Amino acid sequence: MNMREQQEAYEQQFLSPYAAHSADSKGRDRQETPCDMRTVYQRDRDRILHSKSFRRLIHKTQVFLSPEGDHYRTRLTHTLEVSQIARTITRALHLNEDLAEAIALGHDLGHTPFGHTGEEALHSVCETGFRHHEQSVRIVELLEKGGRGLNLTKEVRDGILNHRTGMHPSTLEGQVVQLSDKIAYINHDIDDAIRGKILTEEEIPRECTAVLGVTVKERLNRMIHDVVAQSMGNSSIFMSSEVAEAMADLRRFMFQQVYTNPAAKTEEKKAKNMLTALYYHYLDNIEMLPSEYIYRMEQKNQTKARVVCDYIAGMTDSYSIAKFKEIFEPKAWKG
């Protein structure tokens, strides 16, 4: 029995009956020889971790656009925090930690430069619309590895696609990531907003802090413990009504005070205008795209709008600014 088989046997013996066992995976679109050391979900996690799309997340906005300071979250640090929370919960519930980690690491691969601001810009101009969770799946199925994709398991792709609130992941591990995403961003966005002097701890509604706690650490601890306590031995993942309502109230407060706050969003209009201008420029000058995008359009029946969206969505904040300057900023004449 090799190491993978030993791990699969361990899962069968010790994981919850509600866990997604590696040996029972629905598999990949393209069959592969099994690894002798890693389960299918471990391989998926490693493929995401080593992908170019994952590395680019370090230079993509979470909430604060181009903040002055080294300690504000980026899309990458958000992803790592989601992964940590999801692993803590799945381990406590005896679910498949490797599957949860793979979903968490891949859930935001499709995010645009400038976060949700960029997503809104592309969604408003692209003829097919643009949604980051769908783009994340497109990346792992098609765009990575020169058009071959990462060939991930169906369970990981399902968790990535359905990680947004209101959607329905097919595995408990996917449900854990869905909640972990919300727990992570609410709490780290409060932390960043306090650091950026957008709000103070004292301004957070008392009805929320009375239930969840008066520090980021206390709130994280309360939410995570509540998920574990409520979900233990159950066939779904959920919070108590008290904690869920307090978290929903806190999320509404964050939308009012931070996510739509002019002090935090002063550059958003510029970012939207910039990405919109880039979209229409490349649409009219499709030959300026890298050759792999032209190939996809000509040989893979991808539309111009789709490949332009793929190109812009893959940019980091700084690269999109550099391309905008290269295209639209006048250059000094050299005689």
Structure description:
- The chain has 335 residues and is mostly helical.
- The protein is flat.
- The model has no long low-confidence stretch (mean pLDDT 93).
List the keywords.
single chain; 335 residues; mainly alpha; 16 helices
What's the arrangement of secondary structure elements?
Elements: H1 3-14, H2 40-49, H3 52-56, H4 75-92, H5 97-106, H6 115-125, H7 132-143, H8 154-161, H9 172-195, H10 206-212, H11 216-231, H12 241-259, H13 268-284, H14 291-299, H15 304-313, H16 317-328
Helix pairs in contact: 2-5, 4-5, 4-9, 4-11, 5-8, 5-9, 6-13, 8-9, 9-11, 9-12, 10-12, 13-15, 13-16, 14-15
Query: Given the structure, what is the number of helices?
Result: 16
How far apart the termini lie comes to 73 Å
How many β-strand runs?
0
Order of helices and strands: HHHHHHHHHHHHHHHH
For the biggest sheet, the summary is: none
